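Now read this:
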Amino acid sequence: MNYTKGWMTLNRSCNLRCNYCYAKNTGYKAGDNLDLNLAKQIIDIFSDLKVRHVTLIGGEPTVYPHLFTVLNMLNKKGLKTGFLSNGILYSNMDFVKKLYEHNIKMFSISLKGTNCKTFYDTTGIDDFNTVIEGLKNCLKFTPYVTVFFVVSQVMIDDLLPCLELLKSIGVNKFHFSFIYNFDTTPGYKGFLEKDHPKNIVYQFKNIYDRINVITSGNFKVFPTFPACIWGKDFIQLLNDRKQLSFGCQLKEQDDLIFDSEGNIIPCNAMYPIKLGKLNKDFFDSKSLIKHSETIKVTSIYQKYSTRPSSICKTCSVNQFCDACACQWSNYSFEQLLNT
């Protein structure tokens, strides 16, 4: 493994309850926090491996009680750091200022709805306007603010007015990925019934030109679904316009991801799969690299990064396909194509 990016899961607690959250089965336990001694060990490993960037995740990382202590540790090691937040606490100007003073110079906010209604339908909490105020606060410190969307059937109808609102307050960068899940429940069919990829892709492509105009083309699309569902011409268009985003943790195998208990996991969404535990299976960067080369670890990466069908080998857009492997726990490739 040649790790270039590090991920630290600070906690499992969250101040929202998104119905599509990949980590909802963790129970959002308030006491499930990364121990500071473990955090120091993990940061030392990141530093030894010379990772280019560290991302702090949760839960919701901003509610982690030792956030600023961890940021101080990372800054002392000279590690470039960021995190993706739901933005609720950014409505507190003093909190945003403190983050900025702790070397967070770019803000990434995952917006859970396109208006008050869809935000509430998704999270169970009426805090859309709170997040908008948080975005305004961030923009007072830096123009480097990106809004991330996980596009679902519920959100897509009102996506354009939301983008216009965000542009009007000064947001200039956007990122779109699409709803997925990692659910190994036998016979689970919820996604094809509620958020069928073909329907979402069709609707997104229909509004793409308007998205491009509203955002002045300043956005990235992580397709999530197989490239063949999007179509060769559309994928090529995104690629030509430099709007296509890649970065599957499983396929690239250069992301070192720790959960809140010090386990390494193959993907943020695949938190039930433990590849090894700090202070049990490895103790430092050298023993971690040795452990990562064991059959136990490499076989899991091979299992989940393999293309879902033999026809993928001859697909004309195979080189652009970064389909999220999590979806194959919900339905097969054949089910997706034939429904």
User: Anything to note?
Assistant: The radius of gyration is 20 Å. The first helix runs from residue 36 to 49. The CA atoms of residues 252 and 305 lie 9 Å apart. The chain has one domain: 5-338.
